């Protein structure tokens, strides 16, 4: 089976969030800005997915690096998880042809169906060769158990295709994460979503640096030089560690707290109905592929909303 070259494209992984019914005019105006920031966060993840897909192409074909089909497949899979349609098609092609992977029409059919649903014409044509869609999903696309610490995930694979400046910041995030008992994957997800690893970033709300600390949060976690990359990252990781303890390891609530503040999470007893925050949480969960994270209960008492929110989360499995 032949495979042509196609232009890269991204898609809305989880879609825009609905605004709360009955919002007042001031909230609606704020949500315009929120939607714009949410779209910017989504663009960061789409860009990262393209990085991974491009790196996968290099390893699949030996372009500038040693040819490693298995590594290419892993990179394609991670990119597909983040919504890259070309990665879905390419991984499906590898399964359909048994190139570096065990041949599986069932897995190929699933991946082609995913890509075709998103408008990939060649994937739609390839479905005639793989048979009817039967719902088989490759193991690499299955979310790992909540207790597993990011099995098979490689920070270096995500960092490798970045620019030199972004690599330096990304490695600092990953290296420091262990000091705060935070998964490197979660630390990188927050840093990418916040600033795209820009140590000089400033938001309209005066959030500063890699981890986009507002002045109050910087002071709370003893950050005196917010544009010093290491000091800023340490402050952001300290806050994230506190949020994980406060929300008892719930990644969605911790991410929502990081974006909107823990009081907003408590006010709405879950992820607030702000377009920016819901898009933010969606990006982080898509990157993480799991909802739970280890935490140190000694850091702080739990939020008073935790028992009820955890019950809803366990029953519904969603945000």
From TrEMBL:
Residues 177-270 form the Transglycosylase SLT domain. It comes from the Bacteria. Residues 1-28 form the signal peptide. The keyword Amino-acid biosynthesis does not apply. Keywords: Signal. The keyword Signal applies. It holds the Pfam family SLT. Belongs to the transglycosylase Slt family. PANTHER family: MEMBRANE-BOUND LYTIC MUREIN TRANSGLYCOSYLASE C, SOLUBLE LYTIC MUREIN TRANSGLYCOSYLASE-RELATED. This is Transglycosylase SLT domain-containing protein. It comes from Aromatoleum toluvorans. The lineage of its organism: Bacteria, Pseudomonadati, Pseudomonadota, Betaproteobacteria, Rhodocyclales.
